[in-house]
Amino acid sequence: MLNDYFLLLITGVITIFIGLLLITLSFFTQSLGENKKKSEAGGVIIIGPIPIVFGTNKSIAVTAAIVGGLLTALAIILTLLLGGGHL
After folding, report:
1. In which domain, by residue range, is 13 found?
2. Residue 17 shares a structural domain with residue 56
3. Residue 46 and residue 30 in one domain
4. 63 and 45, same structural domain?
5. Which whole-number Å values give the CA distances from 37 to 19, 33, 40, 66, 86, in the listed order?
6. Based on the structure, what is the number of domains in the chain?
7. What pLDDT was estimated at residue 35?
8. Distance (Å, rounded) from C-alpha 83 to C-alpha 86?
9. Which residues neighbour 72 within 8 Å (Cβ) at sequence distance 6 or greater?
10. Could you list the pLDDT tens digit for every one of the 87 residues in the chain?
11. Do both 1 and 32 map to the same domain?
């Protein structure tokens, strides 16, 4: 049981580091390139069952809201299926 939690912890830490690495690489590739393209960004912060959505324009925010809603639904379904939720 402890090994499962440790594996989950290591997977989470590695995922965070990969995300930070991708953000850093995208920053450097954008700053080194002579072709200055307009970049757009958006994201979702999920606190409990509530997704908080942000974006640089409306279409990015809508896409992030859809992804956030899907992730929230997936988290609820997996929690109920794996026996963690006792409603």
Report:
1. 1-36
2. no
3. no
4. yes
5. 22, 9, 10, 26, 49
6. 2
7. 62
8. 7
9. 46, 49, 50, 51
10. 667 788 888 888 999 999 899 888 887 777 776 666 677 888 888 887 777 888 888 988 898 889 888 888 888 888 888 776 555
11. yes
87: which 2 tokens? Answer: 């409603």
27 lies in the same domain as 48:
no
What is the C-alpha to C-alpha distance for residues 12 and 15, in angstroms, rounded to an integer? Answer: 5
**Which whole-number Å values give the CA distances from 26 to 17, 32, 83, in the listed order?**
14, 10, 40
What is the amino acid identity at position 82?
A: L
Instruction: Say yes or no: 32 and 44 in one domain.
Output: no
The predicted pLDDT at position 21 comes to 92
